[in-house]
Design a protein that fits this description.
alpha+beta, elongated, 12 strands
Amino acid sequence: MAVNMPKGYIGLTDPDWYEFLAGKPKVDEVNFWQPHGNRAFRALTPGDPFFFKLRAPLKAIAGFGFFQRFEALPAWLAWESFGEMNGAASFAEMIDRISRLRGDNGSPDGRFKIGCIMIAAPVFFSQDQWISPPADWAKTGIQQGKTYRLDEGEGERVFRECLSAAEAGARYWNVERVGDVGPRYGTPTMVRPRLGQGLFSLAVREAYEGACAVTGEHSVPVLEAAHIVPYGRGGEHRVDNGLLLRSDLHRLFDRGYVTVSPDYKFVVGDRLRAEFNNGRSYYSLNGSGIRRPDRPEWIPNRDYLDWHREQVFQG
């Protein structure tokens, strides 16, 4: 990922969304959703800063994060991927808020699509840290968002004030520092945000083109992104530490009944038969090659697969 960031985007932000997320500890990602999913967001490239400007009457920049991807998703999948990081305490609350903004009844099961601007490593400021918006921001309230250069003018001022506020607090945690802020009028260098669970899940779905790595199943509701090395045991939210699996295979993989060998073969252990006197539908998959992503950097890391075989798989 490039570390030079010449532009950023200031997006008009719902105060309820901000207040809910600002009250959460260690937020590593958020979904800045749009009520309608019919307009793609193309203003930024992955890694560019995205600033949260509160709606009137507050009219202040209350935080920022780093854009990672945009996708139009069914609302139910947005909730399944990000949960409360959608800025709501429940799925029903999120659907109600979206429906009111859409001006229709939507669908209580969330089958309609919404635009999802996915942000990594967000920081939310306390009120005494809020940043003044750009002097050229429209006074009419019509403007929904605007792109700014970050190496000159008001964009540069907002960026540096946000960095200063972020580094002064205890919540600027989910990043890797890759450089210091450059000279005052130079191109600023920044930090590299780490992915959270929701972004990891969607990135793995993309890498495997929405198909289970073992069976080729395409039904979205039954597909899950599995960590090879679990996050709780030091694994990262990296695509090469992931496999897209049917939900039943995911559970078996996490519990060590199945694994994937470093030469990318699906392996079913004897324990499945011994403990349950069953597993016929799984043993037919034993020894089959898994599907691998097209991009080399997304292919499962052989060291991670070897770790799973040694530390989780029980034969």
